[in-house]
């Protein structure tokens, strides 16, 4: 368990149990796939942020546990759908659900998780929470579609790239923090700070994720290195390489994005290194983390807000 998870370790265990309990279905395949996903583990950063945000503001109830499970269900549903769209074969070191059971069951169980999340939201009975999370799921879907549109297009700009990761990834980090604040009775300023903190952490997380696709290894990452390249995703290391490299380097990267030719991975790595694409991406992530940390000044200084500081730094320093 990571240090910033320790402060809510009992709640963390309770959320894991709640997730398993809420996966109950009369249809065996739903439970089989659901349990397969849960047992794969994961960092659980998004549900963790719900707990830390609520606790940092002195929350003593139990609804943060339900919200943490809701956030994890939404996240897992997006992963199920994402893996089908990307035809991914490996996640968290194991075959993806679509590789194991096929595309149709993966999509449908993703739908089940979305609807279970909204059932649990209704039980909480907060219109603020419903508004935040319904807007969030809608925005994630937009981001996924935009990413699909951008695939194999080497003309995607840095601005457009950031718009996609803001919608696809950062929005759920942001929502996790804000709903934690809502149930804890956060004032307007605190809610805004939590929302921005989560957004900046989410963007940093995705930037590092995109860098790790070229610098990590499959055993540590739990997914195949070079997947983004094979899917023709124009991520920031590649956008920077095309913008600053020689004509030949830019053309190599652009053609590889168009074709999704993963056999060019080594050559692309050399171009990314030569143009400083990795440093550029990690420096951008560092700026996001610094902006996230500045938002924490609005919260009380306690073990939970300090854990949020550690989590932000982890999003930058992680290797998986």
Automatic annotation (TrEMBL):
Full protein name: Octaprenyl diphosphate synthase
Stated family: Belongs to the FPP/GGPP synthase family.
Recorded catalytic activity of this chain's protein: 5 isopentenyl diphosphate + (2E,6E)-farnesyl diphosphate = all-trans-octaprenyl diphosphate + 5 diphosphate
EC number(s) on file: 2.5.1.90
Cofactor: Mg(2+)
Gene it is expressed from: ispB
Function, in words: Supplies octaprenyl diphosphate, the precursor for the side chain of the isoprenoid quinones ubiquinone and menaquinone.
Lineage: Bacteria, Pseudomonadati, Pseudomonadota, Gammaproteobacteria, Cellvibrionales
InterPro entries xrefs: Isoprenoid_synthase_dom_sf, Polyprenyl_synt, Polyprenyl_synt_CS
Keywords in alphabetical order: Magnesium, Metal-binding, Transferase
Gene Ontology MF term list: all-trans-octaprenyl-diphosphate synthase activity; metal ion binding
GO BP terms: isoprenoid biosynthetic process
């Amino acid at each position: 368990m990571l240090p910033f998870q320790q402060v809510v370790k009992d709640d963390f265990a309770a959320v894991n149990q709640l997730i398993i309990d809420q996966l109950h279905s009369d249809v065996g395949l739903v439970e089989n796939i659901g349990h397969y996903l849960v047992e794969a583990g994961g960092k659980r950063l998004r549900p963790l942020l719900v707990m830390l945000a609520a606790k940092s503001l002195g929350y003593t109830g139990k609804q943060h546990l339900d919200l943490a499970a809701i956030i994890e269900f939404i996240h897992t549903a997006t992963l199920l759908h994402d893996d089908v769209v990307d035809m991914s074969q490996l996640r968290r070191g194991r075959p993806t659900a679509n590789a194991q059971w096929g595309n149709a069951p993966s999509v449908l169980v993703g739908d089940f998780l979305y609807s279970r999340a909204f059932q649990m939201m209704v039980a909480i009975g907060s219109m603020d929470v419903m508004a935040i999370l319904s807007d969030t799921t809608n925005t994630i879907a937009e981001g996924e579609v935009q990413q699909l549109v951008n695939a194999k297009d080497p003309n995607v700009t840095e601005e457009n790239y950031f718009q996609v990761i803001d919608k696809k990834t950062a929005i759920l980090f942001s929502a996790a923090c804000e709903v934690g604040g809502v149930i804890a009775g956060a004032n307007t300023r605190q809610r805004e700070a939590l929302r921005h903190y989560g957004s900046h952490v989410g963007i940093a997380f995705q930037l590092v994720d995109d860098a790790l696709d070229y610098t990590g290894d499959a055993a540590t990452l739990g997914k195949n290195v070079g997947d983004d390249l094979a899917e023709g995703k124009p991520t920031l290391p590649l956008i920077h390489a095309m913008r600053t490299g020689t004509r030949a380097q830019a053309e190599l990267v652009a053609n590889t994005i168009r074709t999704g030719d993963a056999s060019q991975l080594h050559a692309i790595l050399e171009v990314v290194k030569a143009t400083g694409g990795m440093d550029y991406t990690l420096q951008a992530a560092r700026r996001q983390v610094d902006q996230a940390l500045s938002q924490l000044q609005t919260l009380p200084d306690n073990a939970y807000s300090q854990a949020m500081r550690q989590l932000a730094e982890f999003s930058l320093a992680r290797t998986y």
